[in-house]
Inverse folding.
Protein backbone atom coordinates (compact mmCIF):
# COMPACT_ATOMS: atom_id res chain seq x y z
CA UNK A 1 0.00 0.00 0.00
CA UNK A 2 1.36 3.39 -0.94
CA UNK A 3 -0.20 6.62 0.14
CA UNK A 4 -3.21 6.26 2.38
CA UNK A 5 -5.71 8.40 4.19
CA UNK A 6 -6.10 6.90 7.63
CA UNK A 7 -7.86 8.22 10.68
CA UNK A 8 -9.45 7.01 13.86
CA UNK A 9 -13.21 6.89 14.10
CA UNK A 10 -14.97 6.80 17.49
CA UNK A 11 -14.45 3.03 17.86
CA UNK A 12 -12.31 2.02 14.89
CA UNK A 13 -10.07 3.05 12.02
CA UNK A 14 -10.77 4.22 8.47
CA UNK A 15 -8.17 3.55 5.79
CA UNK A 16 -8.35 4.64 2.16
CA UNK A 17 -5.68 3.33 -0.21
CA UNK A 18 -5.05 6.09 -2.71
CA UNK A 19 -3.33 3.70 -5.13
CA UNK A 20 -6.53 1.73 -5.51
CA UNK A 21 -8.65 4.89 -5.48
CA UNK A 22 -6.67 6.37 -8.39
CA UNK A 23 -8.89 7.08 -11.37
CA UNK A 24 -12.22 6.86 -9.58
CA UNK A 25 -14.41 9.65 -10.76
CA UNK A 26 -17.56 8.73 -8.91
CA UNK A 27 -16.39 9.85 -5.44
CA UNK A 28 -18.97 7.47 -4.04
CA UNK A 29 -17.44 7.65 -0.58
CA UNK A 30 -17.89 11.42 -0.41
CA UNK A 31 -21.45 11.20 -1.65
CA UNK A 32 -22.24 8.42 0.80
CA UNK A 33 -20.84 10.40 3.69
CA UNK A 34 -22.98 13.35 2.68
CA UNK A 35 -26.15 11.28 2.41
CA UNK A 36 -25.76 8.84 5.31
CA UNK A 37 -23.01 10.39 7.44
CA UNK A 38 -21.74 13.73 8.65
CA UNK A 39 -19.87 15.13 5.62
CA UNK A 40 -16.43 14.38 7.02
CA UNK A 41 -15.08 13.67 3.53
CA UNK A 42 -14.76 16.02 0.56
CA UNK A 43 -13.13 16.15 -2.81
CA UNK A 44 -9.90 18.05 -3.22
CA UNK A 45 -7.24 17.69 -5.87
CA UNK A 46 -9.28 14.99 -7.55
CA UNK A 47 -9.47 12.70 -4.59
CA UNK A 48 -11.34 12.18 -1.34
CA UNK A 49 -9.80 13.87 1.67
CA UNK A 50 -10.88 14.71 5.18
CA UNK A 51 -13.10 17.77 5.38
CA UNK A 52 -12.34 18.22 9.09
CA UNK A 53 -9.38 17.69 11.37
CA UNK A 54 -8.23 14.31 12.71
CA UNK A 55 -9.47 15.12 16.19
CA UNK A 56 -12.81 16.37 14.91
CA UNK A 57 -13.47 13.32 12.78
CA UNK A 58 -13.14 11.11 15.86
CA UNK A 59 -16.10 12.97 17.23
CA UNK A 60 -18.10 13.56 14.04
CA UNK A 61 -17.88 10.28 12.15
CA UNK A 62 -20.97 8.22 13.00
CA UNK A 63 -19.50 4.99 11.59
CA UNK A 64 -22.42 4.55 9.21
CA UNK A 65 -20.18 2.23 7.11
CA UNK A 66 -21.71 3.65 3.91
CA UNK A 67 -18.37 4.83 2.51
CA UNK A 68 -16.85 1.34 2.64
CA UNK A 69 -19.83 -0.34 1.00
CA UNK A 70 -20.36 2.28 -1.69
CA UNK A 71 -16.66 2.18 -2.60
CA UNK A 72 -16.80 -1.60 -2.72
CA UNK A 73 -19.94 -1.76 -4.86
CA UNK A 74 -19.41 1.18 -7.18
CA UNK A 75 -15.84 2.38 -6.71
CA UNK A 76 -12.47 0.69 -6.49
CA UNK A 77 -12.76 -1.12 -3.16
CA UNK A 78 -10.17 1.20 -1.70
CA UNK A 79 -11.73 1.76 1.71
CA UNK A 80 -11.51 -0.44 4.77
CA UNK A 81 -13.16 0.22 8.13
CA UNK A 82 -11.69 -1.78 10.98
CA UNK A 83 -14.00 -2.19 13.93
CA UNK A 84 -12.33 -4.38 16.53
CA UNK A 85 -14.32 -6.42 19.02
CA UNK A 86 -12.33 -7.00 22.16
CA UNK A 87 -12.36 -10.65 23.14
CA UNK A 88 -13.56 -11.91 19.76
CA UNK A 89 -10.73 -13.26 17.65
CA UNK A 90 -10.86 -13.61 13.88
CA UNK B 1 -31.31 -4.38 37.03
CA UNK B 2 -28.44 -6.47 38.33
CA UNK B 3 -28.94 -9.03 41.06
CA UNK B 4 -26.38 -9.37 43.79
CA UNK B 5 -25.57 -12.69 45.37
CA UNK B 6 -26.58 -13.12 49.00
CA UNK B 7 -22.98 -12.75 50.21
CA UNK B 8 -22.59 -9.49 48.26
CA UNK B 9 -25.86 -8.12 49.63
CA UNK B 10 -24.82 -8.97 53.18
CA UNK B 11 -21.56 -7.07 52.75
CA UNK B 12 -23.57 -3.98 51.87
CA UNK B 13 -25.92 -4.49 54.81
CA UNK B 14 -23.02 -4.79 57.24
CA UNK B 15 -21.60 -1.54 55.87
CA UNK B 16 -24.71 0.22 57.19
CA UNK B 17 -24.86 -1.53 60.53
CA UNK B 18 -27.25 -4.38 59.75
CA UNK B 19 -26.14 -7.50 61.65
CA UNK B 20 -25.65 -10.68 59.63
CA UNK B 21 -24.52 -14.15 60.73
CA UNK B 22 -20.77 -14.67 60.99
CA UNK B 23 -19.47 -16.21 57.80
CA UNK B 24 -17.74 -15.87 54.47
CA UNK B 25 -17.98 -17.01 50.87
CA UNK B 26 -16.12 -20.04 49.53
CA UNK B 27 -15.46 -21.28 46.01
CA UNK B 28 -13.92 -24.61 46.98
CA UNK B 29 -14.70 -27.31 49.57
CA UNK B 30 -11.37 -26.62 51.26
CA UNK B 31 -12.20 -22.96 51.66
CA UNK B 32 -15.57 -23.92 53.13
CA UNK B 33 -13.83 -26.10 55.67
CA UNK B 34 -11.46 -23.32 56.67
CA UNK B 35 -14.35 -20.88 57.17
CA UNK B 36 -16.26 -23.42 59.25
CA UNK B 37 -13.16 -23.90 61.41
CA UNK B 38 -12.97 -20.15 62.00
CA UNK B 39 -16.63 -19.96 62.92
CA UNK B 40 -16.56 -22.99 65.17
CA UNK B 41 -19.79 -24.89 65.81
CA UNK B 42 -22.63 -25.75 63.48
CA UNK B 43 -22.85 -23.92 60.15
CA UNK B 44 -25.18 -23.48 57.19
CA UNK B 45 -23.67 -23.98 53.73
CA UNK B 46 -25.75 -21.96 51.27
CA UNK B 47 -25.52 -22.15 47.48
CA UNK B 48 -25.08 -18.68 46.01
CA UNK B 49 -27.57 -18.57 43.17
CA UNK B 50 -30.10 -16.13 41.79
CA UNK B 51 -33.02 -18.40 42.59
CA UNK B 52 -35.70 -18.49 45.25
CA UNK B 53 -36.68 -21.46 47.37
CA UNK B 54 -33.11 -22.65 47.83
CA UNK B 55 -33.93 -24.64 50.96
CA UNK B 56 -36.68 -26.66 49.31
CA UNK B 57 -34.50 -27.19 46.25
CA UNK B 58 -31.64 -28.57 48.34
CA UNK B 59 -29.48 -25.51 48.01
CA UNK B 60 -28.95 -25.00 51.73
CA UNK B 61 -27.25 -27.72 53.78
CA UNK B 62 -26.32 -27.84 57.44
CA UNK B 63 -23.08 -29.10 58.88
CA UNK B 64 -22.11 -29.91 62.47
CA UNK B 65 -18.36 -29.61 61.94
CA UNK B 66 -15.78 -28.42 59.38
CA UNK B 67 -15.53 -31.85 57.77
CA UNK B 68 -19.25 -31.94 57.08
CA UNK B 69 -19.05 -28.36 55.83
CA UNK B 70 -16.38 -29.37 53.35
CA UNK B 71 -18.50 -32.29 52.18
CA UNK B 72 -21.61 -30.12 51.87
CA UNK B 73 -19.71 -27.54 49.83
CA UNK B 74 -18.40 -30.31 47.62
CA UNK B 75 -21.95 -31.40 46.87
CA UNK B 76 -23.19 -27.92 46.11
CA UNK B 77 -20.28 -26.44 44.16
CA UNK B 78 -20.52 -27.21 40.47
CA UNK B 79 -24.08 -28.50 40.81
CA UNK B 80 -27.11 -26.97 39.15
CA UNK B 81 -29.79 -25.43 41.31
CA UNK B 82 -32.96 -24.76 39.35
CA UNK B 83 -30.81 -24.50 36.24
CA UNK B 84 -28.29 -22.17 37.88
CA UNK B 85 -24.72 -23.40 38.10
CA UNK B 86 -23.42 -22.95 41.66
CA UNK B 87 -19.93 -21.46 41.72
CA UNK B 88 -19.82 -20.21 45.30
CA UNK B 89 -21.28 -21.09 48.67
CA UNK B 90 -21.78 -18.93 51.75
CA UNK B 91 -20.71 -20.64 54.96
CA UNK B 92 -22.36 -19.07 58.00
CA UNK B 93 -22.92 -19.80 61.65
CA UNK B 94 -26.16 -21.65 62.18
CA UNK B 95 -28.47 -19.65 64.41
CA UNK B 96 -31.42 -20.70 66.55
CA UNK B 97 -34.28 -18.63 65.27
CA UNK B 98 -37.30 -17.72 67.36
CA UNK B 99 -39.19 -15.36 65.06
CA UNK B 100 -38.95 -14.31 61.43
CA UNK B 101 -39.92 -10.98 59.95
CA UNK B 102 -39.77 -9.47 56.48
CA UNK B 103 -38.28 -6.08 55.58
CA UNK B 104 -37.91 -4.59 52.14
CA UNK B 105 -37.53 -1.45 50.10
CA UNK B 106 -39.07 -1.44 46.66
CA UNK B 107 -39.80 1.18 44.06
CA UNK B 108 -43.54 1.66 43.97
CA UNK B 109 -44.18 3.18 40.56
CA UNK B 110 -47.96 3.15 40.85
CA UNK B 111 -49.62 6.37 39.83
CA UNK B 112 -50.44 7.55 43.33
CA UNK B 113 -47.10 6.71 44.95
CA UNK B 114 -44.11 6.91 42.59
CA UNK B 115 -41.61 6.60 45.43
CA UNK B 116 -39.35 4.17 47.26
CA UNK B 117 -41.50 2.27 49.75
CA UNK B 118 -40.35 0.62 52.94
CA UNK B 119 -42.22 -2.58 53.83
CA UNK B 120 -42.31 -4.56 57.04
CA UNK B 121 -44.18 -7.70 58.00
CA UNK B 122 -44.26 -10.14 60.87
CA UNK B 123 -44.62 -12.92 58.28
CA UNK B 124 -41.00 -13.59 57.47
CA UNK B 125 -39.67 -16.46 55.38
CA UNK B 126 -42.33 -16.27 52.67
CA UNK B 127 -42.51 -14.17 49.53
CA UNK B 128 -43.90 -10.67 50.09
CA UNK B 129 -46.46 -11.23 47.33
CA UNK B 130 -47.84 -14.13 49.35
CA UNK B 131 -48.04 -11.93 52.43
CA UNK B 132 -49.92 -9.27 50.47
CA UNK B 133 -52.34 -11.81 49.14
CA UNK B 134 -53.01 -13.86 52.30
CA UNK B 135 -52.25 -11.56 55.23
CA UNK B 136 -52.34 -7.94 54.15
CA UNK B 137 -53.06 -6.91 57.73
CA UNK B 138 -49.62 -8.18 58.73
CA UNK B 139 -47.83 -5.94 56.26
CA UNK B 140 -47.25 -2.27 56.78
CA UNK B 141 -45.65 0.18 54.41
CA UNK B 142 -44.48 3.74 54.24
CA UNK B 143 -43.67 5.68 51.08
CA UNK B 144 -40.48 7.71 51.39
CA UNK B 145 -40.30 11.29 50.22
CA UNK B 146 -37.01 11.26 48.36
CA UNK B 147 -36.38 14.91 49.14
CA UNK B 148 -37.05 14.52 52.88
CA UNK B 149 -35.57 11.04 53.25
CA UNK B 150 -36.46 8.40 55.83
CA UNK B 151 -36.18 9.19 59.53
CA UNK B 152 -36.51 7.17 62.71
CA UNK B 153 -40.01 8.49 63.33
CA UNK B 154 -41.18 7.05 60.01
CA UNK B 155 -39.70 3.67 60.85
CA UNK B 156 -41.14 3.54 64.36
CA UNK B 157 -44.50 4.44 62.89
CA UNK B 158 -44.11 1.51 60.49
CA UNK B 159 -43.56 -0.86 63.44
CA UNK B 160 -46.56 0.37 65.39
CA UNK B 161 -49.44 -2.04 65.63
CA UNK B 162 -47.17 -5.06 65.74
CA UNK B 163 -46.32 -6.84 68.98
CA UNK B 164 -42.79 -5.48 69.05
CA UNK B 165 -41.48 -3.32 71.85
CA UNK B 166 -38.44 -2.14 73.72
CA UNK B 167 -34.97 -3.18 72.62
CA UNK B 168 -36.24 -5.32 69.77
CA UNK B 169 -38.19 -2.40 68.36
CA UNK B 170 -35.09 -0.20 68.51
CA UNK B 171 -32.94 -2.90 66.90
CA UNK B 172 -35.43 -3.38 64.09
CA UNK B 173 -35.64 0.36 63.55
CA UNK B 174 -31.84 0.48 63.17
CA UNK B 175 -31.98 -2.37 60.69
CA UNK B 176 -34.74 -0.78 58.63
CA UNK B 177 -32.86 2.48 58.48
CA UNK B 178 -29.70 0.62 57.46
CA UNK B 179 -31.59 -1.27 54.78
CA UNK B 180 -32.95 1.96 53.35
CA UNK B 181 -29.47 3.44 53.30
CA UNK B 182 -28.22 0.47 51.28
CA UNK B 183 -31.10 1.00 48.85
CA UNK B 184 -30.34 4.70 48.53
CA UNK B 185 -26.57 4.72 48.52
CA UNK B 186 -26.21 1.90 45.96
CA UNK B 187 -29.07 2.91 43.67
CA UNK B 188 -30.96 -0.31 44.27
CA UNK B 189 -34.24 -1.18 42.59
CA UNK B 190 -35.16 -3.55 45.41
CA UNK B 191 -33.57 -4.49 48.72
CA UNK B 192 -35.11 -7.18 50.90
CA UNK B 193 -34.18 -8.95 54.09
CA UNK B 194 -36.17 -12.15 54.27
CA UNK B 195 -36.13 -13.56 56.77
CA UNK B 196 -35.15 -10.87 59.22
CA UNK B 197 -34.68 -13.26 62.10
CA UNK B 198 -34.81 -12.85 65.85
CA UNK B 199 -32.64 -15.42 67.58
CA UNK B 200 -33.39 -17.17 70.85
CA UNK B 201 -30.92 -14.73 72.41
CA UNK B 202 -33.14 -11.87 71.24
CA UNK B 203 -30.75 -10.61 68.57
CA UNK B 204 -32.15 -9.33 65.24
CA UNK B 205 -30.13 -10.60 62.26
CA UNK B 206 -30.49 -10.47 58.46
CA UNK B 207 -30.62 -14.19 57.74
CA UNK B 208 -31.05 -13.82 53.98
CA UNK B 209 -31.27 -10.91 51.57
CA UNK B 210 -32.01 -10.06 47.97
CA UNK B 211 -30.70 -6.84 46.50
CA UNK B 212 -30.96 -5.66 42.90
CA UNK B 213 -28.97 -2.71 41.64
CA UNK B 214 -30.22 -0.47 38.87
CA UNK B 215 -28.18 -0.95 35.67
CA UNK B 216 -27.34 2.73 35.63
CA UNK B 217 -25.91 2.62 39.14
CA UNK B 218 -23.37 -0.09 38.37
CA UNK B 219 -20.86 2.31 36.86
CA UNK B 220 -20.90 4.32 40.10
CA UNK B 221 -19.92 1.27 42.15
CA UNK B 222 -16.93 -0.55 40.66
CA UNK B 223 -16.30 -2.03 44.09
CA UNK B 224 -19.27 -4.34 43.50
CA UNK B 225 -17.23 -5.98 40.70
CA UNK B 226 -20.32 -6.55 38.58
CA UNK B 227 -19.17 -8.01 35.28
CA UNK B 228 -22.23 -7.26 33.20
CA UNK B 229 -24.70 -4.55 34.20
CA UNK B 230 -27.71 -6.43 32.96
CA UNK B 231 -30.38 -8.59 34.53
CA UNK B 232 -29.91 -12.26 33.90
CA UNK B 233 -30.93 -15.53 35.47
CA UNK B 234 -27.48 -17.00 34.99
CA UNK B 235 -23.93 -15.67 35.22
CA UNK B 236 -22.63 -14.19 31.95
CA UNK B 237 -21.01 -16.48 29.38
CA UNK B 238 -17.70 -15.47 27.76
CA UNK B 239 -19.64 -14.22 24.73
CA UNK B 240 -22.03 -12.25 26.97
CA UNK B 241 -18.96 -10.51 28.38
CA UNK B 242 -17.64 -9.73 24.88
CA UNK B 243 -21.01 -8.25 23.93
CA UNK B 244 -21.20 -6.24 27.13
CA UNK B 245 -17.76 -4.83 26.34
CA UNK B 246 -19.19 -3.35 23.13
CA UNK B 247 -22.16 -1.79 24.90
CA UNK B 248 -20.24 -0.64 27.95
CA UNK B 249 -17.93 1.56 25.89
CA UNK B 250 -20.45 2.92 23.38
CA UNK B 251 -23.55 4.87 24.34
CA UNK B 252 -24.83 5.35 20.82
CA UNK B 253 -28.06 3.35 20.72
CA UNK B 254 -28.63 0.08 22.50
CA UNK B 255 -27.12 -3.35 21.96
CA UNK B 256 -28.50 -6.05 24.21
CA UNK B 257 -27.15 -9.59 23.92
CA UNK B 258 -27.65 -12.70 25.98
CA UNK B 259 -26.81 -16.26 25.12
CA UNK B 260 -29.68 -18.62 25.82
CA UNK B 261 -27.45 -21.68 25.49
CA UNK B 262 -23.79 -22.41 24.95
CA UNK B 263 -24.71 -25.55 23.01
CA UNK B 264 -25.39 -23.63 19.83
CA UNK B 265 -24.98 -26.40 17.27
CA UNK B 266 -28.10 -26.41 15.12
CA UNK B 267 -29.55 -23.25 16.65
CA UNK B 268 -30.60 -20.09 14.91
CA UNK B 269 -28.87 -16.81 15.76
CA UNK B 270 -31.47 -14.21 16.70
CA UNK B 271 -31.26 -10.46 16.24
CA UNK B 272 -34.23 -8.24 17.09
CA UNK B 273 -34.97 -4.55 16.81
CA UNK B 274 -36.76 -3.15 19.84
CA UNK B 275 -37.42 -5.11 23.00
CA UNK B 276 -41.07 -5.87 22.33
CA UNK B 277 -40.54 -6.65 18.67
CA UNK B 278 -37.66 -8.92 19.61
CA UNK B 279 -39.85 -10.93 21.96
CA UNK B 280 -42.37 -11.35 19.14
CA UNK B 281 -39.58 -12.60 16.87
CA UNK B 282 -38.17 -15.12 19.36
CA UNK B 283 -41.62 -16.45 20.17
CA UNK B 284 -42.31 -16.98 16.48
CA UNK B 285 -39.08 -18.94 16.01
CA UNK B 286 -39.87 -21.14 19.00
CA UNK B 287 -43.39 -21.80 17.72
CA UNK B 288 -41.83 -22.81 14.41
CA UNK B 289 -39.86 -25.46 16.28
CA UNK B 290 -36.46 -23.80 16.02
CA UNK B 291 -33.89 -23.57 18.78
CA UNK B 292 -32.62 -20.08 19.46
CA UNK B 293 -28.98 -19.56 20.39
CA UNK B 294 -29.26 -16.07 21.80
CA UNK B 295 -31.42 -13.05 22.36
CA UNK B 296 -30.17 -9.79 20.87
CA UNK B 297 -31.69 -6.39 20.33
CA UNK B 298 -30.21 -3.34 18.61
CA UNK B 299 -32.44 -0.29 18.91
CA UNK B 300 -32.60 3.24 20.17
CA UNK B 301 -30.97 4.45 16.95
CA UNK B 302 -27.79 2.40 17.13
CA UNK B 303 -24.86 3.13 14.87
CA UNK B 304 -24.13 0.82 11.96
CA UNK B 305 -20.88 -0.09 13.69
CA UNK B 306 -22.81 -1.34 16.73
CA UNK B 307 -25.16 -3.37 14.52
CA UNK B 308 -22.09 -4.80 12.77
CA UNK B 309 -20.56 -5.89 16.06
CA UNK B 310 -23.86 -7.43 17.13
CA UNK B 311 -24.03 -9.47 13.94
CA UNK B 312 -20.39 -10.54 14.23
CA UNK B 313 -20.95 -11.73 17.78
CA UNK B 314 -24.10 -13.64 16.85
CA UNK B 315 -22.36 -15.29 13.90
CA UNK B 316 -19.38 -16.26 16.04
CA UNK B 317 -21.50 -18.84 17.87
CA UNK B 318 -20.32 -22.23 16.62
CA UNK B 319 -22.60 -24.35 14.48
CA UNK B 320 -25.57 -22.01 14.08
CA UNK B 321 -27.76 -22.89 11.13
CA UNK B 322 -29.33 -19.53 10.35
CA UNK B 323 -29.60 -15.84 11.12
CA UNK B 324 -32.96 -14.28 11.84
CA UNK B 325 -33.34 -10.52 12.04
CA UNK B 326 -36.76 -10.21 13.67
CA UNK B 327 -37.38 -6.49 13.64
CA UNK B 328 -41.09 -6.88 14.33
CA UNK B 329 -41.78 -3.20 14.75
CA UNK B 330 -41.98 -0.04 12.67
CA UNK B 331 -38.96 1.87 13.90
CA UNK B 332 -38.66 5.63 13.70
CA UNK B 333 -34.87 5.40 13.43
CA UNK B 334 -33.39 5.31 9.95
CA UNK B 335 -33.16 1.59 9.35
CA UNK B 336 -30.45 1.92 6.72
CA UNK B 337 -27.86 1.87 9.51
CA UNK B 338 -29.01 -1.64 10.33
CA UNK B 339 -28.57 -2.49 6.67
CA UNK B 340 -25.01 -1.19 6.52
CA UNK B 341 -24.06 -2.99 9.71
CA UNK B 342 -25.52 -6.30 8.61
CA UNK B 343 -24.06 -6.10 5.12
CA UNK B 344 -20.55 -5.54 6.43
CA UNK B 345 -20.81 -8.43 8.91
CA UNK B 346 -22.34 -10.83 6.42
CA UNK B 347 -19.82 -9.98 3.70
CA UNK B 348 -17.01 -10.71 6.15
CA UNK B 349 -18.42 -13.89 7.67
CA UNK B 350 -20.77 -15.63 5.26
CA UNK B 351 -18.74 -15.80 2.08
CA UNK B 352 -17.48 -19.22 3.18
CA UNK B 353 -20.86 -20.55 4.30
CA UNK B 354 -22.67 -21.39 1.08
CA UNK B 355 -26.38 -21.84 1.49
CA UNK B 356 -26.49 -20.28 4.97
CA UNK B 357 -30.06 -19.08 5.68
CA UNK B 358 -30.65 -15.42 6.44
CA UNK B 359 -34.13 -14.02 6.99
CA UNK B 360 -34.58 -10.31 7.57
CA UNK B 361 -37.78 -8.65 8.74
CA UNK B 362 -37.23 -4.91 8.89
CA UNK B 363 -39.63 -1.97 8.81
CA UNK B 364 -39.69 1.72 9.56
CA UNK B 365 -38.00 4.91 8.51
CA UNK B 366 -36.17 4.69 5.15
CA UNK B 367 -37.45 1.15 4.73
CA UNK B 368 -37.27 0.90 0.94
CA UNK B 369 -33.75 2.30 0.82
CA UNK B 370 -32.82 -0.13 3.60
CA UNK B 371 -34.04 -3.10 1.61
CA UNK B 372 -32.19 -1.85 -1.46
CA UNK B 373 -28.93 -1.63 0.49
CA UNK B 374 -29.41 -5.15 1.83
CA UNK B 375 -30.23 -6.63 -1.55
CA UNK B 376 -27.39 -4.89 -3.31
CA UNK B 377 -24.84 -5.46 -0.58
CA UNK B 378 -25.60 -9.15 -0.20
CA UNK B 379 -26.36 -10.14 -3.77
CA UNK B 380 -22.97 -11.68 -4.46
CA UNK B 381 -22.98 -13.83 -1.32
CA UNK B 382 -23.80 -17.52 -1.79
CA UNK B 383 -26.43 -17.48 0.98
CA UNK B 384 -30.15 -18.13 1.23
CA UNK B 385 -31.66 -14.71 1.77
CA UNK B 386 -35.21 -13.48 2.21
CA UNK B 387 -36.13 -9.90 3.14
CA UNK B 388 -39.52 -8.85 4.48
CA UNK B 389 -40.98 -5.43 5.24
CA UNK B 390 -43.84 -3.86 7.13
CA UNK B 391 -46.56 -5.81 5.36
CA UNK B 392 -45.32 -8.87 7.28
CA UNK B 393 -45.38 -7.38 10.77
CA UNK B 394 -48.60 -9.19 11.57
CA UNK B 395 -47.39 -12.35 9.85
CA UNK B 396 -44.26 -13.03 11.87
CA UNK B 397 -45.18 -16.70 12.17
CA UNK B 398 -45.08 -16.95 8.40
CA UNK B 399 -41.62 -15.38 8.33
CA UNK B 400 -40.41 -17.73 11.05
CA UNK B 401 -41.78 -20.69 9.11
CA UNK B 402 -39.77 -19.52 6.10
CA UNK B 403 -36.72 -19.53 8.36
CA UNK B 404 -37.49 -23.06 9.46
CA UNK B 405 -37.79 -24.35 5.91
CA UNK B 406 -34.57 -22.72 4.83
CA UNK B 407 -32.78 -24.15 7.86
CA UNK B 408 -34.11 -27.59 7.02
CA UNK B 409 -32.81 -27.34 3.46
CA UNK B 410 -29.46 -26.09 4.71
CA UNK B 411 -29.14 -28.95 7.18
CA UNK B 412 -29.89 -31.39 4.39
CA UNK B 413 -26.98 -29.96 2.41
CA UNK B 414 -24.65 -29.99 5.40
CA UNK B 415 -25.33 -33.63 6.11
CA UNK B 416 -25.07 -34.59 2.45
Amino acid sequence: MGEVLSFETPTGRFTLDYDRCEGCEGYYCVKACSLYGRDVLRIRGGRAVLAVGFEEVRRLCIECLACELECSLRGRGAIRLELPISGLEG
Amino acid sequence: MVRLYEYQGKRLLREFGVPTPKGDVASSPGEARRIAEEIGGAVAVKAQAWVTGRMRAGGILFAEDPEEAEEAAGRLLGSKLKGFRVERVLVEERLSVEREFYAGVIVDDSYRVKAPTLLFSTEGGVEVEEIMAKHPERLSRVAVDILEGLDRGDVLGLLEGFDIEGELQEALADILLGLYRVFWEYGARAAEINPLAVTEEGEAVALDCRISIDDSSVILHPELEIEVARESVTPPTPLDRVAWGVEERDYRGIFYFMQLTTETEGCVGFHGIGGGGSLVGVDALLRAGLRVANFADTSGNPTASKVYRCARIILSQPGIHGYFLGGACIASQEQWYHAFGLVKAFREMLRDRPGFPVVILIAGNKEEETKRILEEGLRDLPIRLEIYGREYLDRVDYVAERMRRMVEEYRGELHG
